Amino acid sequence: MIQRKADCLRGLKPAFLSLFTWELKLPPPKNVLSKWHLRIAPEPNGMLTLRRKGEASQSAVTQNKPHTKLQTAALGALGPVTSEERELLEKLDLERLPRHVAVIMDGNGRWAQRRHLPRVAGHRKGTQSARTTIETCAKLNIEALTLYAFSVENWRRPKTETDFLMALLREYLRKEMPLIQRNNIRMRFLGRIEELPEGVQKDVREAVEKTAGNGGMVLCLALNYGGRAEIADAVNAILAERNGHGNNGRITEEQVSGHLYTAGLPDPDLLIRSSGEMRVSNFLLWQIAYSEIFVTETLWPDFNRTRLLEALLEFQRRERRYGGIREDQAEQEKPARVAGQ
Q: Is position 154 annotated as part of the catalytic site?
């Protein structure tokens, strides 16, 4: 009987359906179905929808594409894209991208080892992944990107490898400067830069000076960086400022944040780690307190634009509560029973 009525209603003109919403009650004996009503309404695609009694139509939200212009612009800015990348971009809400993305670029050595190549080959290949990530984030108008390039612990590696990494960094800064400038990127460097070789310090200063007037994405390279060292440096800077001023008050979180290497930047919304390792490796320990973490098995030299878009899409699926709960959840929560009551 319901099917016959629904078939008849399908034949009615949309103008008539726009005046009425028909509600047909299903027979009660069928468990879950007894809680539902079949609500026939003027859907844009002419389909009948099944939803709970009293539930409003979501067609205006879910079936329209409010960000078509943004996605078209993004596709144009990114240049040629694969069919997989296009599909991921169409799912992204480009108005809800993370403001700050941080990346632990891990897996260069394993990538080389699996191909029976020297470790340095993995590091060189990894610069291509860095280039792709930097350019994609800049063109998606992400506010800040931080790449973990060299940690304070990396000095424990063989000298031949650390020397190569320093030389590779200098080469990268020279070769990639045109791309940096073309994308209006401003560079910052995080870490104990004064402990790096003189030549590297010179190139770092020049990169900062050359890009200081750019107003696009802020690209932070973490060099000779350690999260614990950063916090210690921040506290010591606060104490140095107080020295001789008789200020013995408590140090606040705001003061620490203002003296970190990242002062002035938003904390990372999304932390990406390649190679499948489930640890943060002393990276941005203060700043990632509420970051969403995305770990991929992909080794860094194989990390491409598709993997980046997957991470951004996964970020948008997360519900960020910062220790709280949604208002509708709070209303549904029952008070905890107190022992003895």
A: yes
> Band of the pLDDT at 247, cuts 50, 70, 90?
confident
Q: How far apart are CA 144 and CA 310, in angstroms?
A: 18
Candidates 31, 93, 106, 184; catalytic one:
106
Q: What amino acid is encoded at 319 in this protein?
A: E
Among residues 7, 64, 154, 302, the one annotated as catalytic is: 154
Domain ranges, ordered by start, for the chain: 2-62, 97-317
CB neighbourhood size of 92 (10 A): 19
Place of tokens 């509600």: 23
CATH 3.40.1180.10 holds for 97-317 = yes
Residue 284 DSSP label: S
Tokens for 280? 């943060």
pLDDT digits (tens, 9 = 90+) for 135-181: 999 999 999 999 999 999 999 999 999 999 999 999 999 999 999 99
Beta bridge partners of 36: 52
**Whole-prediction pTM value?**
0.75
